[in-house]
What does this fold into?
Amino acid sequence: MTSESFTRVARVSDVAPGTSLLVTVAGKEILLCNSKDQITAIINKCSHADEKLECGRIRNGWISCPAHGARFSLETGQAMNHPATLPIQTFPTRIVDEWVEVQA
It folds into this structure.
């Protein structure tokens, strides 16, 4: 498997709108998030205090850190408000035959 390959991680139906699903790909905890009719993949770690994002609220293309309220764009990973200033890692995703695949 090369670094350019995608890994099948979940069925599209496993990630309902407004929810997330934690998966592990290549040893990384990755959060699949369904918002605005799109499934995106982000690292499961806030850039502010290394807190897990898996219980964060998902709304209109962003996720909030449950610890301190920092918000991140699900598409770009950019921090949207303080206390976070650094982006989080995002991963390319694609849908193939109703399966979500992630490149990590």
Observations:
- DSSP finds no helices and ten strands in the chain.
- The chain has a mean pLDDT of 95.
- Strands lie at 7-11, 20-25, 28-35, 38-43, 58-59, 62-64, 71-73, 90-91, 93-96, 99-102.
- The CA atoms of residues 78 and 87 lie 4 Å apart.
